[in-house]
Design goal:
Number of domains: 1
Distance between the termini: 44 Å
Strand content: under 5%
Mean pLDDT: 78
Largest sheet: none
Radius of gyration: 22 Å
Length: 234
């Protein structure tokens, strides 16, 4: 991927993001109604898919780490040494993967589920079981299995196969580097799957960080409000 190609993905993604922000500023009520509808629809119709996917990620991580013939493959060249110590890696992982989210939601999330359970009476024993099950699903080994699966694949392609650290690189073993250029019988790069794959991933990651920073703001805002009673907690 050349520099022009990378800039195209970046600027198109930013343009879409700015358009959505502008929509929210100019028509907040319509934006809120559509966002709530999308969230409710996805949660109701695809909640089972989310739980199943996390279970598959966990099973795959355990299998490839302990039982598969690939468990001893180094995520780098055979003669290379790790750049960071195990302690440094765990420090970075927990800072990036958990961070302020766990501090903010570590208590708030199970309490929220306890008071507002699904298919149970608020404050009951069943509500407590539901609260802990959901909280462990979100903060236990399941999300780490998803992180490690994608991270392992990216590291393998980048540091062992000398490919770019992009999600589209993960598709090369399946389709080859020139797969996208032959779609619909054209050599036009506009049909290259790398473009659409990287564009989609850039946008979804940006949305993920937007939500993450929102939680951080809420945590810091409420923390300072609790100490000094000066900031709004809205």
């Amino acid at each position: 991927m050349n520099k022009k190609y990378s800039n195209t993905v970046f600027f198109v993604s930013i343009s879409i993001s700015l358009a959505i922000v502008l929509w929210g500023l100019l028509s907040p009520l319509a934006f809120e109604n559509i966002s709530n509808w999308l969230f409710a629809t996805i949660s109701k119709q695809f909640g089972w898919f989310y739980v199943l996917s996390m279970a598959i990620f966990l099973s795959f991580s355990v299998w490839i780490a302990y039982f598969s013939r690939f468990k001893n493959i180094k995520l780098g060249k055979d003669d290379e040494k790790p750049e960071y110590s195990m302690f440094s890696w765990f420090s970075m992982l927990f800072s990036a993967g958990m961070g302020v989210g766990l501090i903010f939601w570590g208590v708030a999330e199970p309490l929220n589920y306890f008071l507002n359970p699904l298919n149970a009476v608020s404050g009951s024993r069943e509500a407590a079981i539901f609260a802990f099950n959901k909280s462990f699903l979100h903060w236990g080994v399941h999300p780490w299995a998803a992180y490690s699966t994608i991270g392992m694949a990216l590291a393998y392609m980048q540091f062992r196969k000398d490919q770019k650290g992009l999600i589209s690189s993960l598709l090369i073993p399946l389709f080859g580097e020139n797969f996208g250029k032959t779609i619909l019988g054209t050599n036009n790069n506009s049909f290259n799957y790398n473009y659409y794959c990287n564009h989609f991933c850039f946008y979804t990651v940006r949305k993920r960080y937007k939500i993450n920073f929102k939680f951080k703001y809420l945590f810091i805002n409420n923390f300072i409000n609790f100490l000094f009673l000066s900031w709004s907690n809205s």
